[in-house]
Design brief:
Transferase(Phosphotransferase), domain 1, alpha+beta, Phosphorylase Kinase, domain 1, 36% helix, five-stranded antiparallel β-sheet, disordered N terminus, CD59, elongated, three-stranded antiparallel β-sheet, 3 domains
Length: 510
């Protein structure tokens, strides 16, 4: 801050100009200057923290400028000048540089407009994002409810059709019957903890990672006994719990009798007793049998029907939750005596109920078969909290099963080979499959003859849409079932027309 005061010339009584002597710090040896105006002392600082320094001199006679210049006064900071009139009056004159007051403390009243300007937009944006999320979630829920309602309607139509065939009148009567008749209906026909004493094991018909499968006899009826070791109790208990659900019974789901624990040579054995199918698994059947179009489509359509029943939730008082298999492969699909299929081995299944929207993954930490694993499992990108992710995994594996069956079909069938037989070793590792399926995006190759065959070309298209790299692009199993059903009906119609034509030609020739 600069404070400069200029004086005016002083006149004596007789009208002459009165002269004053002033102390002058830069006037050489005299150390004085004379003026008819005023003396002054200037206080200045070069830095705010520096002590005050003083410079004394006088104004010129015309009072327009200082007679003794302060060097670089314009560059000084915090200058204060005080003037006086009188002989050597500035000798002890000491002006004071006014102190700069610190800025006043900012109060809340001054800050709240800034806070409001920042916080309010954030709150508004947060509310908009929340609203958009809730709207999208509501729309997704409605869409899922519509899809489930449509699937439920189709399923109930099938059930009601079955009711009419057996002479029943209502769905309730069918539910009551299915929950009490056993044989895979949901409640075991044989009393648990006593059944093992009444079953006689006949022959070992297979071995798997969970143990052995035996052919047995119970009251002059053949049964299959799946024997788990005690270390696989989680799988046994999981499969038992799932088979004990109401409305699980379906002609394309392996029929269930009961479960039991027993001891053999001081070792605990866990038994799961099911229907026995003499033709074995689809894997075994394809080793030694070739198929025509109708047989192929009957096998894959019936397997798709069983998987569709698992995936569908039935919402009634005694309903069935949606179930994802998680280990679909030709060894877990059995061939019935009428040459249709049924799905077994539910030890890795995932259960989902729409009402609670909770996933029941069970306590079994084992995973499915590596050769049939979907890309999202191999890349470890599957969302385990979203049930549809597991259904997409099943559809991918089912596409590989379709490929296995189609290779054994037609006039010139190929030798049976498992999926990726030409890309990975016979017992592939997780890394082998990940490189082939995820990195290279390899899929089983369709033989050249399929492209010129109308039926096999259509089946190949279904398989490709099942094993798409993107899970969202895969067909739902209900759509696969309907497509295969239409193909089967078309083939059956052509077969009937061909038979009729042959009969007509034979009659004409006679």
């Amino acid at each position: 801050m600069r404070h400069i005061a200029y004086g005016n010339p002083v006149l004596s009584r007789n009208g002459t100009v009165k002269m004053y002597k002033c102390i002058c710090d830069d006037c050489g040896d005299d150390a004085f200057c004379e003026t008819s105006s005023s003396c002054y002392t200037a206080a200045y600082k070069d830095h705010p923290d520096q002590d005050e320094q003083y410079h004394r001199s006088c104004f010129s006679a015309d009072s327009s400028q200082m007679s003794c210049k302060i060097q670089n006064l314009a560059s000084r900071i915090m200058v204060s000048i005080k003037c006086c009139q009188g002989h050597l009056c500035n000798q002890d004159l000491r002006p004071t540089i006014p102190r700069e007051e610190p800025p006043p403390d900012t109060t809340w009243q001054e800050l709240w407009p800034i806070v409001v300007a920042i916080v309010v937009p954030i709150i508004i944006v947060g509310m908009l994002i929340s609203a958009i999320y809730l709207i999208c979630r509501h729309m997704h829920k409605r869409r899922m409810e519509m899809l489930l309602a449509n699937e439920r309607r189709l399923l109930e139509d099938d059930i009601l059709h079955g009711v009419q065939q057996v002479g029943e009148n209502t769905l309730k009567e069918l539910l009551d019957h299915s929950c009490t008749s056993g044989s895979g209906s949901g409640l075991p026909q044989l009393v648990q903890q006593t059944v093992a004493k009444r079953v006689m094991l006949v022959d070992c018909i297979g071995k798997g990672r969970y143990g052995e499968v035996w052919k047995g006899r119970f009251q002059d009826e053949d049964v299959a006994v799946k024997i788990f070791s005690s270390r696989d109790e989680a799988s046994w208990r999981r499969e038992t719990d799932i088979y004990n659900m109401c409305l699980l019974r379906h002609e394309n789901i392996l029929g269930y009798y009961g479960s039991d624990m027993t001891s053999w040579h001081s070792c605990t054995q866990l038994w799961l007793i099911t229907h026995y199918h003499r033709l074995g698994s689809l894997y075994d059947y394809l080793q030694y049998n070739t198929l025509d179009y109708e047989q192929m489509l009957t096998l894959v359509h019936s397997a798709a029907a069983g998987l569709s029943h698992l995936h569908t939730e039935i919402i009634t008082n005694r309903g069935k939750p949606a179930i994802a298999h998680r280990d679909i492969k030709s060894k877990n699909i059995l061939v019935r005596s009428n040459f249709s299929c049924c799905i077994g081995d539910l030890g890795l299944a995932v259960i989902h109920k729409q009402e609670s929207n909770l996933l029941d993954l069970g306590h079994n930490q084992k995973v499915g078969t590596k050769r049939y694993m979907a890309p999202e499992l191999l890349a470890e990108t599957l969302n385990p909290s979203f049930f549809d992710s597991f259904k997409c995994v099943d559809v991918y594996a089912f596409g590989l099963v379709i490929w296995e069956v189609a290779r054994r079909t037609g006039e010139y069938p190929e030798e049976y080979k498992p999926p990726f037989y030409d890309s990975v070793p016979s017992d592939p590792s997780f890394e082998d499959m990940r490189k082939t399926v995820v990195v290279d995006q390899t899929r089983p190759v369709a033989p050249n003859r399929w492209f010129s065959d109308l039926v096999l070309n259509q089946v190949s298209k279904v398989a490709r849409e099942c094993w798409s790299q993107n899970p969202k692009a895969r067909l739902p199993i209900l759509r696969v079932k309907k497509t295969l059903s239409q193909l089967l009906k078309s083939v059956q119609l052509l077969t009937q027309q061909d038979k009729a034509l042959k009969i007509e030609n034979l009659e004409k020739s006679c």
